[in-house]
Amino acid sequence: MDVKIFPNTLRPGTGLKPKKEAQRPMLPQHARLCPVLEAGSSLGFLVYPALNENEQFHIGYEGEGLYQFGYSINPTGKKWEQVFYINYQLSVGTIGMRKEEVKMLMPETPGFRETALMMARAFISVDDLGTPEGAVTLRGAWNFQTPSGWDTVYSGVINNTQRPIAPVLVIRVETDWYVHDSEFRYVLTPGDMITVSHNLPIGQVYFVPREEISLIEGTKEENARRLEKSRSFFEEKAGNKQKTPYGMEYSPLYQKLSREQRKADKKK
């Protein structure tokens, strides 16, 4: 299946392209060697922000409808320097009303306020701030258009256990006909802040068919065959083990059979 990708409208060509990634470096070794966990991690594609290597931004929630966005650069590779920050103050109890205060931390240039506000919109969805309370929406460097009948699901990076992790709202969009920017909706509590860098993914996308699914109860005979397959697999797994350099045992059987199944499917 082919899925088309399109660049961030406000920063076209900036940022890493989406990619599959089975590894989660922060997981312990015994978890990284689990083939079904790696398959889960590589589901869909990781999405990155529209940032260059020497750029960074943060978005924080102070409570009472106050959000702060900050943009920084590292021109020499030695030290991060904040260029500007924007305070977004939402009206309490009112939807859609906000005050935007821009503060430049470097020598000001003509039109700096408009430029800063526009840059912020390339990285976050300003109009979605506070929906719900504490919510911030991060925008990706690339957007997706699926084939007819397929949707895109947007979530946080799965199997990422590094603390702290803000809760994320999962959305599903009919991207075969609706033009949708890649957006990942995190929910912060007062005092929380997310720092976003060039090489760190901000979320993950998966592509799913829109067809209806019916659950059909299996027969007794089908259940017996299923249990026999399970018994046979675990017997073979017990006799097919390897050791890591650190002495930990694991079985590559599932991964081996999975690869054989994929090769057989391609020949059909």
Write up this protein:
The chain is an alpha+beta fold. The protein folds into two domains: 4-209, no CATH class; 226-267, no CATH class. It has five helices and 16 strands. It has helices spanning 29-32, 35-41, 112-123, 220-238, 253-267, and strands at residues 4-7, 45-47, 55-63, 66-73, 81-90, 98-104, 135-139, 142-145, 150-155, 168-169, 171-173, 183-187, 193-197, 203-209, 242-243, 249-250. The strands form five sheets. It has a five-stranded antiparallel β-sheet, covered by helices on one side. The two termini are 16 Å apart.
The number of helices is 5
Global Rg:
23 Å
Provide the low-confidence segments as ranges. none
Biggest β-sheet, characterized?
Answer: 5 strands, antiparallel
Percentage of residues in helical conformation: 10-25%
Mean pLDDT: 89
Strand content: 25-35%
- The H/E string reads EHHEEEEEHEEEEEEEEHEEH
Domain module count: 2
**Strands, total number:** 16
- Distance between the amino and carboxyl termini: 16 Å
CA-based shape: elongated
Which structural category do the helix and sheet elements fall into? alpha+beta
Major sheet strand order = 6-5-4-3-13
Q: What are its keywords?
A:
five-stranded antiparallel beta sheet; about 270 residues; alpha+beta; four-stranded antiparallel beta sheet
List the helices and strands and how they pair.
Elements: E1 4-7, H1 29-32, H2 35-41, E2 45-47, E3 55-63, E4 66-73, E5 81-90, E6 98-104, H3 112-123, E7 135-139, E8 142-145, E9 150-155, E10 168-169, E11 171-173, E12 183-187, E13 193-197, E14 203-209, H4 220-238, E15 242-243, E16 249-250, H5 253-267
